[in-house]
From TrEMBL:
Its cofactor is Zn(2+). It holds the Pfam family PDZ_6. Keywords: Hydrolase, Membrane, Metalloprotease, Protease, Transmembrane, Transmembrane helix, Zinc. It is found in: Membrane. The chain crosses the membrane at residues 141-163, 363-383, 425-447. GO terms for molecular function: peptidase activity. SUPFAM superfamilies: PDZ domain-like. Residues 202-227 form the PDZ domain. It comes from Nocardioides panacisoli. This is Site-2 protease family protein. GO terms for biological process: proteolysis. It is a multi-pass membrane protein.
């Protein structure tokens, strides 16, 4: 039964991501067609074709490797300086015969030339007015932004549904003077949190002061304590100074004396940066607080997620390198390391098959996992580098700026931005993405991130 539930979770997550990929590609195809562009292919997956069907001028299908998708929009690349775009001739099959005006020398020049030739093999005489590169810049932006925007919208509606019904649940300290929930027996570095105390670990200041679970802290160094945040701030500001604690136990008021120790700790739950602060070694009694909200609350939460995603993108290469080190056994895989669709599927499987989770929480977790993947995919595709959608958007925006500047200065129209000239960079970046993707997939198989309970 557990194996069946695991497989169900994996399949449901995988189908959710495949549906998201299909909708992403529709986000490109629909506006491209509405603007008069020619779309010859719409595929989910890569590699050998499993199934396809022609509807009108577009071939719809599924390929064998379900790790992405694509739509083929004719005329993404302009003819370029080495061809004469105003003197095109067509062969008997209707394909353009590109006349070379300059010799193609050098690896990159030949690479760009070959890419143009492959692109223009699909162009027919009647397609001249339908080529993507000839569209106004704003139409190009709409077409290329359509895909990742769909992913973000998927995430938004899933988040909204969860926030409006299930809500967000957080553990917050009980109101009033803090009640001690746990007392650390020893001082363990934050980076080693979770391990047991050893004989070499010093006793925690809280243990030395005689604190026990259930004690209510009423003052710290003579200052009355009203809530946990006040006590927490006082402890952290105390560095390694003397700490006199007055607390209530069984209706009696007792006093404990100790000295806080300086430890590297994060300043808040949203900031993982470690700072040297005073440490006592207690945690407060908490209760679960449920917060629900509508679309504005969802936008607010996604604003916070955006900051986290930007930070994650900045550290992605380093974290992927950490996964590579874990694969070869140099170190353990970090719990917060990125995962591929395979890793997401494994986490979904573990969630659905976990006996300790109620059905509602399993459904919510699975929805949030799919929404989080969609949000990351959407944000990642807006990175302004080819071959990502953001690279095409950046090219279109630069085209608008360049033409506007030319008009203001009274200079001739500089024409379309030639994205083909960036292909060497695009191929290099694509190779990096491919390597990172392979590393994550292997890591999710060999040293997977498991569900934290």
């Amino acid at each position: 039964m557990t194996a069946l539930l695991y497989a169900l979770g994996f399949v449901l997550f995988f189908l959710g991501i495949l549906a998201s990929i299909g909708l992403h590609e529709l986000g490109h195809m629909i506006p491209a067609k509405r603007f008069g562009g020619k779309v010859t292919q719409y595929f989910i997956g890569f590699g050998p074709t499993v199934w396809s069907k022609h509807v009108g001028e577009t071939e719809y299908g599924v390929k064998a490797i379900p790790l992405g998708g694509y739509v083929k929009i004719v005329g993404m690349l302009p003819p370029g300086d080495q061809y004469d775009p105003d003197d095109l001739e067509y062969d008997e099959q209707g394909s353009p015969v590109l006349k070379v005006r300059k010799s193609n020398t050098g690896l990159f020049t030949q690479l760009i030339s070959d890419a143009r030739a492959a692109e223009w093999e699909l162009v027919r005489p009647e397609d001249t007015g339908r080529l993507f590169y000839r569209m106004p810049w704003w139409k190009k932006v709409v077409v290329m932004a359509g895909g990742p925007s769909v992913n973000i919208l998927i995430a938004f509606f899933i988040f909204w549904g969860v926030f409006a019904t299930y809500g967000t649940k957080t553990e917050e300290p009980v109101a009033g003077a803090p009640i001690v929930a746990t007392v650390s027996e020893c001082v363990i570095p934050y980076t080693e949190d979770g391990r047991a105390c050893t004989k070499d670990d010093p006793a925690s200041p809280a243990a030395e002061a005689g604190l026990k679970p259930g004690d209510r802290i009423v003052s710290f160094n003579g200052t009355p304590i009203e809530d946990w945040e006040q006590l927490r701030a006082a402890i952290r500001a105390n560095d390694d100074g003397t700490a006199v604690l007055v607390y209530e136990r069984d209706g009696k008021e007792l006093t404990g004396r100790t000295s806080t120790t300086v430890e590297a700790r994060p300043t808040s739950g949203t900031d993982a940066t470690l700072h040297q602060v005073g440490f006592l070694g207690i945690s407060p009694k908490t209760h679960v607080v449920t917060t629900t909200g509508g679309p504005f609350y969802t936008v607010e939460q996604m604003g916070t997620m955006t900051k986290q995603v930007v930070q994650a993108l900045g550290t992605l290469p380093v974290k992927v390198w950490g996964v590579a080190e874990a694969i070869v056994g140099v170190k353990d895989r970090a719990a917060d390391s990125p995962v591929s669709i395979v890793g997401g599927g494994r986490i979904a499987g573990e969630t659905v098959s976990h006996r300790g989770f109620p059905l509602t929480e399993k459904v919510v977790f699975l929805l949030m996992l799919i929404a989080s993947f969609n949000f990351f995919i959407g944000m990642f595709n807006f990175v302004p580098l080819l071959p990502l959608d953001g690279g095409h958007i950046a090219s279109a925006l630069w085209e608008a700026v360049r033409r506007a500047l030319a008009r203001v200065r009274g200079r001739p129209d500089p024409g379309y931005v030639d994205a083909a000239k960036l292909l060497p960079i695009a191929y290099g970046f694509a190779a990096v993405l491919l390597v990172m993707g392979v590393v994550l997939i292997i890591g999710d198989i060999v040293v997977p991130v498991h569900l934290t309970t």
